[in-house]
Amino acid sequence: MNKRIALLFGLLAVSYVLISWIGSGSNVAVGPKVDLSVLPLALDGWVGEEVEIRDDTVRVLKADGFINRMYHDSSGREISMHVANWLNAETISAAPHHPEICYPAAGWEIRERRTTQLTTAAGDIPIELISFQKGQQRVVSGHWFQVADIHFVSSDGFQRQRHRFWGKKAWPSTTKFLLQTVAPSVDAAEERLKGFATLIANELAKEHG
Description:
The chain is α+β, with helices and mostly antiparallel strands. It has helices at 3-22, 55-61, 99-105, 155-159, 186-208, and strands spanning 28-29, 42-43, 46-50, 65-72, 78-86, 109-120, 123-134, 137-147, 150-152, 170-171, 174-182.
């Protein structure tokens, strides 16, 4: 068998697998691994309150479940938290409503960004910190996504693991974690956001441990 024929058979085999995976009939959307109800309003000195989302934002979000809160501590610092779940019945939406798209669409300019790691009870979790500016306002966001037991900060991070779901009838949901705080730079916000994000991850690990 020459190399061209071998390559052709290889491409056909890959195409068959992909077609079988994409066209394998109705898939079952597995409920979220992340139970949003377990995230408490009191988190190690931080006290939260529910914040209502406008109806037009809910329509654009198209999430199957979400929570939106503002937390503050005794020193007056604030962190907003948005967590949302999407069921995946037709395709796995890896990184819906990524901050690098949503913030600029709302008039914010990206100033700097950095990906770092959280050390949690569930293991290491990547988190991307992005500094945004609009006029004189500066904020820093921190986000990560979760599909099954995979954590990532962009769709590229998921694509390397997508093969794990090929041919499966049950597809896990996607969960997005987004934090935001007022700060002039990533350096100024990093400890605050990473500390709070670790509290969230540890609460979820406790529930699913």
